Amino acid sequence: MPVFHHYALSGPCRYIRLVLGEYGEEAEFREIEPLARSEDLLALNPAGTVPIFVDDNRAVISPAPVIAEYLAETRGVRFGEDSLIPATASERAETRRLVAWFGSKMHEEVTKLLVDELVLKRIAPKSRGGGSPDSTIIRAGRSNIHYHLRYIGYLVERRDWLTGNRMSLADLAAAAEISCLDYIGEVLWNDNEPAKSWYARIKSRLSFRPILADRVKGAPPTPHYGDLDF
After folding, report:
1. Could you read off the pLDDT of 107-121 as tens digits, one per residue?
2. Quick check: 151 and 193 in contact, CB under 8 A?
3. Is 45 within 8 Å of 53 (Cβ atoms)?
4. pTM score, two decimals?
């Protein structure tokens, strides 16, 4: 069985969990301790980051965008036209652009800032970067989230999904980041009804159920986190 190294409150890791769920794939999940230096992890990925997917053929795949496309090539082919990568070159390009937007830009400008400051610093020992949150960083993350929610709303008002008329990897990459922020109660859903409606559609999918069941030690989710009618 493939092995998936991850951390529960990581947008890139949740992205791959959603891809695995959409393809109906099972894997052995091994959760890493955030902010801890692991020689075993470095041996698998010199960058020392998760997610890392180790396939049955011992192929070690990372980071998240590469894992997602690897899974689409090796598993998604079973689904034919229902693959999470669109059929046309222009739609594939748009999907990859948006995966990079949410998995890199939004992750760095919002999710990583708020999760690091509001969760990881609080639960980690000082030897691993724990300590008091930086209010300046928190304000920056909270300010930036409005921009990304507006962008999601803009896209889904013009398309059925972020890329086009079918759900794609782009929707999963965006929803993974949003789900981390929703876990810690940092999404003001009343600000953008189209984005909220889009997220509700993804949140109700079977692939999302394990995400909604996540509980991070020392950081319980906001009360509405698992509610499909939020």
Report:
1. 999 999 999 999 999
2. no
3. no
4. 0.95
